[in-house]
Amino acid sequence: MQTFSLSLRRHLPRALPLMTALLFAPAFSSLAADNKAEVAKAVANVQTLLKAPFHQTELEQDKSRLPVQMVQFLNITPGMTVMDMGAGGGYSTEILSAAVGDEGTVYAQNNHHLEQMAGGKIIQQLYTRIETGKLKNVKAEIWEMDAIPLNNQLDLVFWGNNIHDYYHSVGEQGTLAILKNVYDALKPGATFAVVDHIGNAGNDNAKLHRIQPQLINAVLEKAGFVAAETTDIYHNAADTHELSVFDPQIKGHTDRYFIKVKKP
């Protein structure tokens, strides 16, 4: 694994970074090295979930979302307090709920806009998922993205496939306000992870629902996060980054950028 400065990162080919580490500031030691047994327990919890009758409708999503690899990369352990940011219908909420176990807590956060989308059908999917799966460790919350009322309470925040919508609508400064709120909600040393669909420079990425990785890197750094690492588990070389993420040719199989950072 390589480390290099963020400014240098911007000049590398767009096919990178794959399994690389970015250095915003001196890196933290790997939690995985110290907690392999605990991470293995979280993985076992997820593997049990994947076989549960109520989860069988999600098998197609499992193929592209790779829940076991996600948990391994994020070094999730039972007992953590985590947040699924912009949880939507709650697929990731369900995975995180299994990973942290009965002793953990998952905040499934959505904002008022999501609450009203599709006539409330999306938020109802989350509530139904919680009820059907008996996800007793999940707290469904309606909080605005920049008004999460937690302070130094979270071990992990996961934001999946959604930062592009905010970056393209409220710009870097608006996104920075959201990330600073996330920063405040995290405990010192905690992890913030972002996944999103990769876009090419010069394209209408707002229309395509994509974003350039270097824009994510820059705003994370400005928010004060450090010790960045990326993984290629969601890399798809067949995605040219030219199609809308909703195009049937690529939907559910986009080339996605997955980065995790730390709060110092």
TrEMBL record:
Residues in coiled coil: none
Signal peptide: 1-32
Keyword field contains Transport: no
Keyword Amino-acid biosynthesis annotated: no
Molecular function (Gene Ontology), one example: methyltransferase activity
Record-linked InterPro entries: SAM-dependent_MTases_sf
One Pfam assignment: PCMT
Domain of life of the native organism: Bacteria
One record GO biological process: methylation
Protein name in UniProt: Class I SAM-dependent methyltransferase
